[in-house]
Write a structure and sequence with these properties.
193 residues, elongated, ten-stranded mixed beta sheet, alpha+beta
Length: 193
């Protein structure tokens, strides 16, 4: 179940335009566009929905990316782990600040989730469960494996981002104690200068 090569995830391939950029917002908008232009890529930013930063990008002609609205959620790591239950036969590996929890049954990979350790924070990314194996608790198992690794690394808070149209995922995360912190939106630059 490895991710397809070349898969571009919006969150990992966008500028996180949240907080003070250290220069006037209009200049920051131009800097983002210039940076992506230097790479030959389409400019993409993630903003907090309804923020002054979003309004500045929209005023500069940027537009929302359809079906890419997401929500940022946070949870207490200890509470989320308790709600997950046992990781079962999940194998979790750590490589520096990166973690990977994988569940295999009878030699077939059933589910996986990636994590990023950053001090007391654990970011959760790319939870996947094989479609024919869903609704059997496997998502909770791989999450338990990742959260257990986060406990060993000293994390206390977990965050993740979930697409608003991601079917049952918001209910899964709510059941693990995640609370919506804010709405996010992806914007792309106009094609003309």
């Amino acid at each position: 179940m490895p991710e397809a090569p070349g898969l571009r995830l919006p969150r990992t391939n966008s500028c996180l335009a949240i907080g003070d950029p250290g220069l006037p917002l209009r200049a920051a908008v131009g800097s983002v566009k210039a940076f992506y232009g230097s790479l030959g890529r389409t400019p993409l930013v993630q903003v907090e929905a309804g923020s002054e930063i979003e309004r500045t990008f929209l005023a500069a002609g940027w537009a929302g990316v359809p079906t890419e609205d997401t929500s940022f959620h946070v949870a207490d790591r200890e509470e989320a782990l308790a709600r997950c239950g046992s990781p079962g036969p999940v194998v979790t590996t750590l490589d520096g600040t990166r973690a990977l929890a994988v569940l295999s049954l009878a030699g077939d990979e059933v589910g996986r989730v990636r994590g990023e350790l950053n001090g007391e924070w654990l970011g959760v990314h790319g939870l996947q469960v094989e479609e024919s194996r869903r609704r059997r608790g496997h998502a909770r198992e791989v999450m338990a494996g990742l959260l257990d690794a986060g406990a060993s690394a000293g994390t206390s808070t977990v965050w993740l981002e979930v697409a608003d149209d991601n079917g049952p995922a918001p209910a899964l995360y709510a059941g693990l104690g995640f609370r919506r912190h804010h709405a996010c939106r992806y914007l792309t630059a106009p094609t003309s200068a």
